[in-house]
Amino acid sequence: MAKAAMVQRQVKREALVKKYAAKRAALKEIANNQDLPMEERFKARLKLAELPRNSSPTRLHNRCKVTGRPKGYYRKLKMSRIALRQLASDGHIPGMVKSSW
């Protein structure tokens, strides 16, 4: 089980990313537009830098929805390999059995 503080920090980051997504996209559009004057693009970059650091989507990390574990994460199932194995062993995932050879 991951620390509760780490999971809460991730939830807070997800909320900030969602909140500032439109503003960040608009500023990036201005900053990357080569048709605009250099000063206007530079001002857009400065405003982009003033946004909260945790509002950047690159600061997000995939975490298991069951345990909060950040490593060994399966995107399709949104859980870690350990939680998946445990649920499969308990018989909670239909059609999945523990392999042995």
From TrEMBL:
Keyword rRNA-binding: yes
Keyword annotations: Ribonucleoprotein, Ribosomal protein, RNA-binding, rRNA-binding
InterPro entries in alphabetical order: Ribosomal_uS14, Ribosomal_uS14_bac/plastid, Ribosomal_uS14_CS
Pfam families hit by this protein: Ribosomal_S14 (PF00253)
GO cellular component: ribosome
PROSITE patterns reported for this sequence: RIBOSOMAL_S14 (PS00527)
Its job: Binds 16S rRNA, required for the assembly of 30S particles and may also be responsible for determining the conformation of the 16S rRNA at the A site.
Quaternary data: Part of the 30S ribosomal subunit. Contacts proteins S3 and S10.
Family to which the UniProt record says this protein belongs: Belongs to the universal ribosomal protein uS14 family.
Name of this protein: Small ribosomal subunit protein uS14
Originating species: Amylibacter marinus
